[in-house]
Amino acid sequence: MAVKSVIEAVREAIREEMERDSKVFVIGEDVGIRGGVFLATQGLAEEFGNNRVIDAPLAEASIMGIALGAAFRGMRPIPEVQFSDFVWPSVNQLIGEAARTCYGTNGAVPVPMVIRMPYGGGIRGGLFHSQNVETHFFHTPGLKVVAPCTPYDAKGLLKSAIRDNNPVVFLEHKKTYRLVRGEVPDEEYTLPIGKADVKRQGSNLTVVSYGLTLHYCLEAAEELAAEGVDVEVLDLRTLSPLDTATILESVKKTGRLAVVHEDNITGGVGAEVAALAAGQAFEYLDAPIARICGPDVPTMPFAQTLEDAYMPTSDKIAEGLRRLAAY
Fold it and tell me: What is the CATH number of domain 2-184?
């Protein structure tokens, strides 16, 4: 067992899967000798060569199209979208093609590709380097969407995603890359896609989150514990397929639900979680469902004051939980 950062866990997962399976390759902008803008692929070009770590031009549609064609031919590509904000030119390949191919061929053509996307704000990235894009893919049947928040989860889920025969959108919050550290086993392991994880047990209130805000939820839960409110914190880890059983089990136990995410509040993952609880656990709820999310503005502001106003924080979450607990 060793303590690693999220970015180290991601890099380790890719390297191990490339060693294990010669069909796995990486393609993206600056992923070669530079090792990626966040150094996720650092050292891989030297180890595996330019045929398996392919530096691509600034052409996301081509990157995704090449990866898609390779997946059709039995390869296991890992295309990197340098920032999730850059994914839009490749949406047809992802939503129009990759998500529909298995269904459209009655399972005859699998699409084993993992689309890695650094996403999210809190790093002063501004309008075009801070976007939260998960809802667009969460809404699309045929795509699996994974959003880990710890090194342990990132490595185990990325290895599972690479071995999966379906297209997986793998979201990595940029601010967690070096900020979040944790223990990662030395031995081989994978984690199941589609299974949430209770990061903190509690009895008075359930908080459902993912990504960076999960850590803020844990901080808020500790603050409320000192005030006598026992908060359960549930990390979705996988957004699609959603672990409905674990969500409902927690809500039925605590009787209160808050959903927290950085993405815009309207039509987000939290809205689906709220609808699930309202539809299947209504009789267990002792208070209205709370949503503590990013506001409905087009994208992340650049100004520090505006970015701070946009981002959910542990203080904002704690205040929302206090109001919910008071019902």
Answer: 3.40.50.970
